[in-house]
């Protein structure tokens, strides 16, 4: 697993600042990997939480300078828990903004205990590319994996490396289940699926099953961390499976060393700026997020808001909605777009925010940060 374009914060810049970063734990979750990429230890103190909501809580309470939360996955879409907290219906997170993003390639592993003896086992080491499997390894294992390429080194991807007939329970995070549906339906239809708070929590639960009848879909690091056997590797539906994480902080706390300092053009972003000079609109180097509601009964109210972005020449990169919980079937919308409120020489972002005053019922700016995939 790799994270694209590591963008780490220098240790010197962070002397005398709060260096705690909260992420969804336990350790060895994908959130942990994403956090380590952006906030290398030991300069940063990484603190696992039990839920995504706790990441928001700690940042808002000032107990963590930053928080890292999954936002969307390329296969399964938006992470509902994160959107729910960004919606901030109870006004608990009034100061929280997004100040950066991290992309992580996500390859899921099936972890559990091998049957002992397991005559079908070939190579259980995490990340091994040389493992192969007998045609009778598991229910319907004879058929080649349909979802990954068929090169020889990929033969062990997406197929069981050991018998799975003893697995009765399969733990994982709902997002991970959503990214591995083909494998689970094909090889583990006989097992009960149990959603838990993270993939590393899933591995912890599987490791704690004395009968060895539980398995987890989790990361290869969780295999090592919890001493589990790798029963299958790269079980995601799509090999290009990628999750994008948001880095959160409190608004106005982007002082020296803060990651958002780079989002408004700090030194660390300079090389990147030069690379991107060719971009037609310089705002493509950045992204911003706003949430808003529109008058529910007014025809075209949502279109009016979207038209403001078109009018200002701002490219949208994602649109989401969640129930407003004010009245049934009324929604709060999120629009993410290219451009920064913090570096806005042409005034396009400032302009669109003024437009929102006119056409939206309520709106909130949720941050501007460097586009870590500009030019793609
Ligand atoms: O469960 C984890 O390991 C997480 O960090 C959460 C999460 C998510 O919510 O999207 C992160 C990345 C993967 O997409 C699957 C799960």
From TrEMBL:
EC number of this enzyme: 4.2.1.51
Any one of the GO BP annotations: L-phenylalanine biosynthetic process
MF (Gene Ontology): prephenate dehydratase activity
A cellular component annotation (GO) from this entry: cytoplasm
Listed Basic and acidic residues bias regions: 254-273
PROSITE patterns noted in UniProt: ACT, PREPHENATE_DEHYDR_3
Keyword Transmembrane: no
Biased composition (Low complexity): 122-156
Prephenate dehydratase domain sequence ranges: 20-250
CDD domains the record matches: ACT_CM-PDT, PBP2_PDT_like
Domain ACT: 290-376
Region feature (Disordered): 115-158, 254-277
Keywords: Amino-acid biosynthesis, Aromatic amino acid biosynthesis, Lyase, Phenylalanine biosynthesis
Pathway named in the protein's UniProt entry: Amino-acid biosynthesis; L-phenylalanine biosynthesis; phenylpyruvate from prephenate: step 1/1
Name this polypeptide is given: prephenate dehydratase
Organism per entry: Thermothelomyces thermophilus (strain ATCC 42464 / BCRC 31852 / DSM 1799)
